[in-house]
């Protein structure tokens, strides 16, 4: 499986970036049910080799439902569980679905959470029985982290959702007797949370098998950091930069001022103790990362390593600072970390997210590891001929994007009055266009990406459809209004698949097993909507 995944990064191919929560589905949020299968069918019809998603972990309203700030690095998001599949499995009755009138264009997390909780409670009641008890026990035995996560969530409920570092000291510091008592008292609640993980993984692995059958590789996304209020930090306090008494972070993650923010990005995640100097901490830290990588490769074929530069050096911000302007660069684990992970896990198909402030040392690490980096066309147009994101500067061992989940959409960028008009004209000229039509700009960028030397080309679904910034996925530094966009079902259609397939064939990116015969060129250069 891993060999196939690595090969896709070494041959010309293309794919689409679309978070699972953005899929059309009747319960107000994308899920792992029928429309996910429909989207995989669409990708196969369109000649696409891969589906890139965002992190699949649980999200919370306190953190704006960011998939990059999860309560667990190993768990799946119960909001993505499909009620339709629960009906197929006999855990819900069709009449129980009766969905409220959800928007097809954005996620209302508050209403979705309430309705999914209701449906999962019904499924839990239906699950009770000797046969199912054994199935849940088998799942927990195969995934012991689920028991820890279940305890963490049960304690969160018990303490009125207070952060773990605000819990009573014995529980906060994981006293053995206190934990044993909590496990006994909260046994039923713990199993209910484990049940939700059982459902998520059962549904996800079923979907992954279908994608493999259709020849579609899944590209996951691995955030380098975890949320402070997470089971990972609570369970592994010694590997994070925490105050030994209060258990709160002493230094936090972020990046200094850059393209996205004049004051930097203060992420707030606790930092790893890469430089603690103790053998025990280093061993525990490596074991935790091995578990994390192994778990992610259970779910996907390829992993995008978010904030790759943090493995070479990372920006350390004192926790009391309100912005990320004050901090210092500290050495990360570097090459020895990847050598050790390869020894433990074998060859890993990885994509290095090497955006932002990239030093020669970061570039050297990526090249030594042979990992493809990322190229973003929306960063290319500044009239500097050595800009590494310009198509002619992209090496084959790279992944080119029109934009990512953190960018404006292509059309949104072209319509943005803050963007220099000269940069827009340069972009059009690269596409051999002389017009100022924003309505065609997304196809201009897709053509450029498809024609680039980069082995893999990825397009956010919003760019494929030519949507504006009202459909933007995330604005870095903005705490509200992100991770909401949904794809209406009528946009997944055969006409769009045919247009994209022909473009993919024209630029030599169809999967090897796909017939490469010449098709009739479409009358319209733009994708149908």
Protein described:
With 529 residues, the protein is α/β, with parallel strands linked by helices. Helix content is 39%, strand content 10%. The chain contains 18 helices and twelve strands. Strands 9-6-3-2-1-12-11-10 form an eight-stranded parallel β-sheet. The protein has a four-stranded antiparallel β-sheet with strand order 5-4-7-8, with no helix packed on it. The longest helix has 27 residues, at 187-213.
Relevant terms:
529 residues; 4-stranded antiparallel beta sheet; 18 helices; 39% helix; alpha/beta; 12 strands
Layout of helices and strands, plus pairs?
Blueprint: H1 2-8, E1 13-17, H2 34-45, E2 50-52, H3 83-88, H4 109-127, H5 130-142, H6 145-158, H7 169-172, H8 176-185, H9 187-213, E3 217-222, H10 231-235, E4 251-255, E5 265-270, H11 279-299, E6 302-305, E7 313-318, E8 328-331, H12 334-345, E9 350-352, H13 360-369, E10 373-376, E11 398-401, H14 410-415, H15 421-430, H16 441-451, E12 456-460, H17 461-465, H18 494-506
Parallel strand pairs: 1-2, 1-12, 2-3, 3-6, 6-9, 10-11, 11-12
Antiparallel strand pairs: 4-5, 4-7, 7-8
